[in-house]
Design goal:
33% helix; alpha/beta; Rossmann fold; 2 domains; five-stranded mixed β-sheet
């Protein structure tokens, strides 16, 4: 698996049919439904995902449709869930497992790193681990320190694992289908604050449902979004903003509030990543702001900053800025002091323009 993927090697995806309004929850469920119908080797399991339909109802109705042998509940054992999935993948199945919250994935870390990520290499290609590990991540829901973490950088550091984070229902469905079809293990992170609508960081404003946004229009059938493709969600000429998940929407709000003509890139696939799109944008604008919700030190933004420095140094007009969560546990009482909101992103945009 390549570390950095070039976009010119990607095939154009098939054009999907007409869509209908879906939340991200409904889009994810639709992706799993489509793949279970297409491929009898796809199985789904995790804590409460069967009869209950998952804590966020992402798998609601799938057990009734496909039966208890293909959609079933697992004990409260993340290492057991992922370990069983690795074995299923080696046997020829395509398991899709849910970790109830990303904060709970750590007991499964050895299975992900030492087994799933290494299986293709250690077997000289005789076996693969085509499993998808879904997990809700991020804050903004008053979940506190054990229901709000963003551990993406932990997984981008692991060779042999793909790491994905969508920011909208359309991408979520297409990326999840692509993840299920992929022969590599995929960590599929779902920003739970975006499950029911885009969130720009202004927690005191009414929630806007996905039904009122174009990216909430999701085709009912099969389509994919390539796992290694970023999206330019807002063209601009003054500065490049690199973001993913909820921070895409926060960045859009910050740009609108500052009036700075920023180009916003939604990475979608964190690793392998679409480096060509990033480099082309930064070389055009000469400035870069990186935004993520996870803690700052050794966060994925540090890797992005290093890549931009390596590939765009002679084009940069100002130091690279990072806007992130703080290096603390996610505080329940001070949620919005921790959460990187539009004001902090806007301040970074102004600094980089003055540099």
């Amino acid at each position: 698996m390549n570390d950095v993927v070039r976009t010119d090697a990607l095939a154009e995806p098939a054009k999907p049919g007409p869509g209908k309004p879906m939340t991200m929850i409904q889009a994810l469920r639709s992706a799993m439904d489509v793949m279970m119908d297409r491929d009898p080797k796809v199985v789904i399991f995790g804590e409460d995902v069967g009869y209950f339909g998952g804590v966020f109802r992402c798998t609601e109705g799938l057990q009734a449709k496909y039966g208890k042998s293909r959609v079933f509940d697992a004990p409260i054992s993340e290492s057991g869930i992922v370990g069983a999935a690795v074995g299923m993948g080696a046997y020829g199945l395509r398991p899709v497992v849910e970790i109830q919250f990303a904060d709970y994935v750590y007991p499964a870390f050895d299975q992900i790193v030492s087994e799933a990520a290494r299986l293709r290499h250690r077997s000289n290609g005789d076996f693969t681990a085509p499993l998808t590990i879904r997990m809700p991540c991020g804050g903004g829901i008053y979940g506190g320190q054990t229901h709000s973490q963003s551990p993406e950088a932990v997984f981008t550091h692991v060779c042999g694992v793909r790491t994905v984070m969508p920011s909208n229902p359309y991408d979520a469905k297409g990326l999840l289908i692509a993840a299920i079809e992929c022969d590599d293990p995929v960590i599929f992170l779902e920003p739970k604050r975006l499950y029911n609508g885009p969130f720009d960081g202004h927690h005191d404003k009414p929630v806007v449902p996905w039904s009122k946004h174009p990216l909430g229009e999701v085709p009912e059938g099969y389509y994919t979004v390539p796992l290694t493709s970023a999206a330019v969600v807002r063209p601009g000429k003054d500065v490049t903003v690199l973001a993913y998940g909820t921070m895409v929407w926060v960045s859009e709000a910050a740009v609108a509030e500052t009036g700075i003509d920023a180009e916003i890139i939604d990475l979608r696939s964190l690793w392998p990543m679409d480096l060509d799109t990033v480099v082309a944008s930064v070389q055009k604008t000469g400035r870069c702001v990186i935004v993520h919700e996870a803690t700052r030190t050794s966060g994925f933004g540090a890797e992005l900053a290093a890549l931009v420095q390596e590939h765009c140094f002679y084009h940069l007009e100002a130091p690279i800025e990072r806007v992130t969560g703080w290096d603390t546990p996610y505080p329940h009482a001070q949620e919005w002091a921790y959460f990187p909101g539009p004001a902090r992103v806007g301040a970074a945009l102004k600094r980089v323009m003055e540099g």
